[in-house]
Amino acid sequence: MQVYLPNLVIATGQGAMLPILVYAARNLHASPAIATAVVAINGFGTMAFDLPAGRIVARLGEWKAAWIAAALMCLGLVGCIVADSWWFLALAVFVQAAGWSVWSLVRLTHLSRVAPVHARGRALAFFGGVTRAGNVIGPFFFVLVASRNHTRMAFVIYLIAVLVGFVWLVLARDRTDEAAATIRAERIRPLQVLQEHRNELAVSGVAAFGISLLRGSRTAIIPLWAAHIGLDSSQAATLFAYSSVVDLALFYPAGIASDRWGRRADALPCILLLAIGHVLVPFTHVYLTLFLAALVLGVGNGLGSGIVMTLGADLAPDNGRASFLAVWRLISDGGTSIGPLVDSGVVAVATISLAGPVVGGLGFITAAVVAIWLREPDHFAEAKLDRRPGGITQPPAR
């Protein structure tokens, strides 16, 4: 619980912020394309800090890195609160995203270290589900406490959540695991990681990048299209919240499916429904129809709960784990940041109505790669042997 509950609190703050970033930028006189780019910067800041985060965790250990993460998030959110121009807001969003990068790597490194391989899908799906729970609670909380279009309140909620969540982590941390959490790990250069794992990353990395691209676009396309058809920020936040309710309801079944039937059983439905949801968005013109498209996106996202983290944990070596996972997060966060950038680029050079279908098309390409080339972890093959007559029945150790 010392892993999940602090993350729930912080994810609640992030959930309050994500749906209103477009509106916050628009309130500071940003164009629709620039406002979408500000959403992309949230992902880009996370991606840009993934490799430095790996060095921080490897050099200082999980515990000290968590302090750095909290400091960066707080600094960035204070900047968001006082921002008086869209470029200052973008800079502050970048800083808080860097803090989120360190925080996420600390939590992922811990879980991939302590979760047994036969239960890893469920452990990481539950972790993803906690983040989704925050995405549900956050928008509703914003609607409850903020007046219409009072976007700065979302950043205040997030700042308070970071402070509360980090204090909770400090008070509830597992003292018996403190030695492992503070140990310095061997630092391995990113190019060495890419060289040693190039075959696995060529497929699993494409899957992680594509899923993250669809998810990153989802956080931009719903509020962007909502603003386009005349909905206000509270309505957009409510859409995102209900989409996240569906998302949240599916996280544990997704983890069971991943452990029982394999990673492909999680990844394919996730990618296909996210792609279909994007294609449906430009065909919506009122709140109700956009609500239905948002639900499709929520179901797709929920069916893939924890899948990107699980794919990375499956590949992560015991030696140099933090360095490998930093590279893995760079790949997945690259997709998260590029998704809104694709939306922004299509809006800038063509029309907003094409943004969803273009991203959806990229999703269908990703689905084909996963269906044809994604390999399951070794323990699935071993488990099949174990179920043969005379075989052992215990889940294999890594």
Structure description:
The protein has 398 residues and is mainly α. It is globular and about 50 Å long. The chain has helices at 4-17, 21-27, 32-48, 50-82, 86-114, 120-145, 152-172, 178-182, 190-196, 198-228, 233-249, 251-261, 263-280, 287-303, 307-315, 321-349, 355-373, 378-386. Mean pLDDT is 83; it is low at 389-398. It has one domain: Growth Hormone, Chain: A.
Keywords, separated by commas or semicolons:
single chain, mainly alpha, Growth Hormone, Chain: A
Inertia-based shape: globular
CATH superfamily: MFS general substrate transporter like domains
Q: What's the CATH topology name?
A: Growth Hormone, Chain: A
What low-confidence regions span 5 or more consecutive residues with pLDDT below 50?
389-398
User: Roughly what percent helix?
Assistant: over 70%
Compact summary:
The protein has 398 residues and is mainly alpha-helical. 80% of the residues lie in helices and 0% in strands. The C terminus is likely disordered.
Which helices and strands appear, and what pairs or packs with what?
Blueprint: H1 4-17, H2 21-27, H3 32-48, H4 50-82, H5 86-114, H6 120-145, H7 152-172, H8 178-182, H9 190-196, H10 198-228, H11 233-249, H12 251-261, H13 263-280, H14 287-303, H15 307-315, H16 321-349, H17 355-373, H18 378-386
Helix pairs in contact: 1-6, 1-7, 2-3, 3-5, 3-10, 3-16, 4-5, 4-7, 4-16, 5-16, 6-11, 6-12, 6-15, 10-11, 10-13, 10-14, 10-15, 10-16, 10-17, 11-14, 12-13, 13-14, 13-17, 16-17
